[in-house]
Design a protein that fits this description.
The complex is a heterodimer. By secondary structure, chain A is of the alpha/beta class. Helices cover 39% and strands 17% of the residues of chain A. Chain A folds into two domains: 68-181 and 327-407, 3-Layer(aba) Sandwich (Rossmann fold); 191-320 and 414-429, Response regulator (Rossmann fold). Chain A is built from twelve helices and 14 strands. In chain A, the strands form four sheets. Chain A has a seven-stranded mixed β-sheet with strand order 7-6-8-9-10-13-14, sandwiched between helices. In chain A, strands 2-1-3 form a three-stranded parallel β-sheet, with helices on both faces. In chain A, helix 7 crosses helix 8 (278-289) and helix 11 (356-375) crosses helix 12 (379-387). Chain B is mainly α. In chain B, helix 12 crosses helix 14. Chain B has helices spanning 11-34, 37-63, 70-87, 92-114, 122-142, 155-158, 167-190, 192-209, 214-240, 245-248, 252-264, 271-287, 292-309, 313-322; strands at 152-153, 242-243. Classes of the chains: A alpha/beta, B mainly alpha. Chains A and B meet through helix 1, helix 3, helix 4 and helix 6 of A and helix 2, helix 5, helix 8, helix 9 and strand 2 of B. Chain B: This is Branched-chain amino acid transport system permease protein. Chain B: The chain crosses the membrane at residues 12-31, 37-56, 68-85, 91-117, 124-146, 166-188, 219-239, 245-263, 270-291, 297-318. Chain B: It is a multi-pass membrane protein. Chain B: One of its GO terms (molecular function) is branched-chain amino acid transmembrane transporter activity.
Chain lengths: 438, 337
């Protein structure tokens, strides 16, 4: 920075410097980076099938007529862009897939996306704009705050509102809300995260060596706080001792003091209620003090951050709604999605792995398309149909009959085993068994 | 300095006051009646940025103390509104007043401390206001009454309130607050208050030696600027429907406010409004080009080009066109146009 200007020339120079700084920040915020290392999910010989049940795939038939326009807002620039680009990639993929299948009732599908620059205020404006342009249907944005910002105009305009990653499920949207990432809506809103905690506990218990002590380190972020609170309550009910409980600011990169406290407590399980690269930072901090945790559960890590840690995270547990090597991945639709996603990942420089984000994104599209296939391009009819039927998606069969249109919890437990992600619980969809000896 | 009345009520001033009131009244009536939901939503964002840019300039532009903390006052206003609506039965007007008072109070406390030391000038002042964002963010994300990290769903607390009746109602509040910010900005251009602030910007030591109570002016004006930022946070809380720390206290708010002010020109009271209009409209137009990265780069380059070609901002160019050969920048005792 420069000293305060005292003359006109200095004032103007000072303004120019401020402007250049602001411009540079805008430019750098527009240019995200992407780690494209990791394992591929491709199934090279997968054949094209319709993306949803009840739809016919007429490969080679070119769709004609007015397109069915689906509008959406995504954070294509700004701090949320890294993950939002996964949803953009899936949207492009699905649009091409439907059109390769001859469209819906012969009409092509068109995806119309606007960038919200990672700001909820722009999200609401973007949906008003799309609605004003008379898009036929809408797809939800990425993230809890953005989803709730969009919910106002979308609900008011009477559109069906499929959402892929609403991390604030307890905040009521309405009967037009069709969430793909489902938490337990069968009870009241205060207990929506309890079923997920039970799934985690059951997974640990199934190993025969459930933890006797847990240290909680949780990011101050709505979803992670809710997940951690439910897990803690469940574990304590099971008699598991809490050896520490810290909350850290969202965006923290220095985990050294947390790592030190964990090492002193030396719990059976470290519950990391973190997001994105938090796991990487925590393991770096463990490395620097020479501590090896007995076991770690990370709530919402980015797949790239886990892949980057290689063997170090063997045995780590995490939440996921889908893994390719599980019963959920053993369908023609999942195989073709895997093949297509691999190509999109290469083209768009995305991490080539399908887990919660990509799977929820595709599931949201499946919800919307199933509604269209069964009720036509009519939002009122789609809302009515989806409210009284279940939808088969890549993440399982979804219902919309509980609180805020959530059905049953679909969060599952994945473990890193020999460098691979294996869905280990619940049993009915698992691709392997948990290996847990803290 | 020539002794002057606090306000010099002349015909041009009265005309400008009337102009602001008439434009605001027309906007408050015509936009909600004639505009689509999208137009009203866009217009609301427009007036929010206009109000923020004008209120930032009231202190930072006039006094030459660039603040990076205006987003904090805006955020305090948002959270104060959310807290009042969530925890009390008080209506939106009370929440809005609390928002203004809370943000103004924070600015007052900071100003009382920071301006007491001559060390906190220029860059150091900027750093302090930047640090303020981290302090307030930490407080809000740790105090359960305000947020506690879980976010606040404002929408469920505005059902049944007039302001919760849709974007048109929110827009009317936004227009009224933008008009208030414009009136305050106008006041700084025509009063002894504004002259004192500009004397601080041009040469603070000289102003002090000439008897300008610089400390008092700085503290009070910073508080007024903060209060205006907080007030506009009230309708923003309703508009967003759900507020969480990461989104509310994002650093892009002060960044955009500064950019808008520089673009429009801070030497005229209305310059920041022009800058805000230019950025908001440009941003919206560029949304349609289909390349989000390119659109942000275009905005950045546009800013640099405007500064290079029009060092006094867009409002300076207006003046040059109107009165060729006349410098647009005021002297220490000059009156801003």
């Amino acid at each position: 920075m420069t000293p305060i200007p005292t003359t006109r020339r200095a004032l103007l120079r000072h303004r120019a410097q401020l402007s250049a700084g602001a411009a540079l920040l805008l430019v750098t915020s527009a240019c995200g980076s992407s780690d494209s290392e990791g394992s591929t999910t491709a199934v090279p010989d997968a054949k094209i099938v319709a993306p949803v049940a009840g739809m016919t795939c007429n490969e080679g038939t070119k769709p004609t007529g007015d397109p069915i326009v689906v509008g959406g807002s995504l954070s294509l620039t700004g701090p949320l862009s890294e993950t939002a680009k996964v949803h953009e990639g899936v949207a492009e993929l699905v649009t091409k897939w439907v059109n390769d299948c001859g469209g819906i009732d012969g009409r092509p599908l068109k995806w119309d996306v606007l960038d919200d620059q990672s700001t909820p205020a722009q999200v609401a404006s973007n949906y008003e704009r799309l609605i004003g342009e008379h898009v036929d249907l809408v797809m939800g944005p990425y993230g809890g705050a953005n989803t709730l910002a969009a919910a106002g105009p979308v609900t008011q305009a009477g559109y069906a509102f499929p959402t892929h990653t609403n991390g604030a499920p307890q905040e009521l949207i309405g009967e037009n809300h069709f969430p793909a990432w489902q938490f337990d809506g069968t009870g009241d809103k205060e207990h929506m995260f309890d079923a997920g905690a039970t799934t985690l506990w059951d997974a640990l218990k199934s190993s025969g060596n459930p933890p006797k002590s847990v240290f909680y380190a949780t990011a101050k972020f709505p979803t992670t706080l809710s997940l951690a609170a439910a897990a803690k309550s469940r574990f304590e009910k099971e008699g598991v001792k809490t050896t520490g409980d810290v909350e850290y600011e969202f965006g923290t990169t220095d985990f050294s003091s947390i790592a030190l406290r964990i090492s002193q407590a030396d719990p059976d399980l470290v519950y990391l209620g973190g997001l994105g690269a938090d796991t990487t930072y925590l393991y770096d901090a463990f490395d620097s003090i020479g501590y090896t945790p007995r076991s770690v559960f990370a709530a919402l890590p980015s797949p790239a951050s886990l892949a980057g840690l290689d063997d170090e995270v063997n045995g780590l547990l995490t939440l996921s709604i889908f893994e390719t090597d599980s019963a959920l991945g053993d369908t023609d639709i999942a195989r073709y999605f895997g093949k297509q996603y691999d190509e999109v990942a290469k083209d768009d420089d995305l991490f080539p792995l399908i887990e919660t984000q990509a799977a929820a994104s595709f599931a949201a599209w499946q919800i919307l398309l199933t509604g269209v296939v069964n009720a036509g391009v009519d939002n009122k009819a789609i809302i009515a149909w989806l409210n009284s039927n279940s939808v088969d998606t890549i993440a399982g069969s979804l219902k919309f009959d509980g609180y805020n249109n959530y059905g049953g919890d679909i969060n599952r437990v994945t473990q890193i085993q020999d460098g691979k992600r294996v869905l280990v619980w619940p049993k009915d969809v698992a691709g392997g068994t948990i290996d847990y000896k803290p | 300095m020539r002794p002057r009345a606090w306000i010099e009520p002349d015909a041009p001033l009265l005309r400008r006051v009337a102009g602001i009131v008439v434009v605001a009244a027309l906007a408050a009536v015509l936009v909600p009646v004639l505009g689509s939901n999208y137009i009203v939503t866009f217009s609301f964002q427009f007036v929010v940025w206009v109000a923020l840019a004008l209120s930032w300039n009231v202190f930072s532009g006039n006094a030459g103390y660039p603040s990076f903390g205006h987003g904090v006052f805006f955020g305090v206003g948002i959270y104060a509104t959310a807290a009042v609506l969530e925890h009390t039965d008080a209506g939106f007007l009370v929440a809005m007043l609390v928002a203004g008072l809370a943000a103004g109070g924070v600015a007052l406390v900071v100003g009382l401390g920071v301006f007491a030391s001559p060390r906190f000038k220029g860059d150091l002042f900027g750093l302090v206001t930047l640090a303020l964002a981290f302090v307030v963010t930490t407080v809000v994300s740790n105090v359960a009454f305000l947020d506690g990290g879980t976010g606040v769903f404002v929408r469920e607390h505005t059902r049944g309130l007039w302001v919760g009746g849709g974007i048109r109602h929110v827009f009317v509040v936004g227009v009224a607050l933008a008009a208030l910010a414009a009136l305050v900005a106008l006041a700084t251009s025509r009063t002894r208050w504004g002259t004192a602030l500009r004397s601080i910007r041009d040469e603070e030591a000289v102003a002090e030696s000439l008897g300008v109570p610089t400390y008092r002016y700085k503290v009070l004006t910073f508080a007024v600027s903060g209060a205006l930022g907080g007030l506009i946070g009230a309708p923003q809380a309703v508009y967003l429907g759900y507020v969480e720390v990461g989104a509310v206290f994002a650093l892009n708010v002060p960044l955009f406010v500064i950019m808008m002010t520089i673009l429009g020109g801070s030497a005229r009271w209305w310059g920041p409004a022009i800058g805000a209009a230019a950025v908001v409209v440009l941003r919206e137009v560029l949304l349609g080009i289909g390349s989000p990265e390119l659109s942000q780069i275009v905005i950045g380059v546009f800013l640099v080009v405007v500064i290079a070609v029009l060092p006094q901002g867009i409002s300076g160019a207006f003046d040059r066109l109107r009165q060729p050969g006349r410098s647009g920048v005021r002297g220490a005792s000059g009156v801003s146009r």
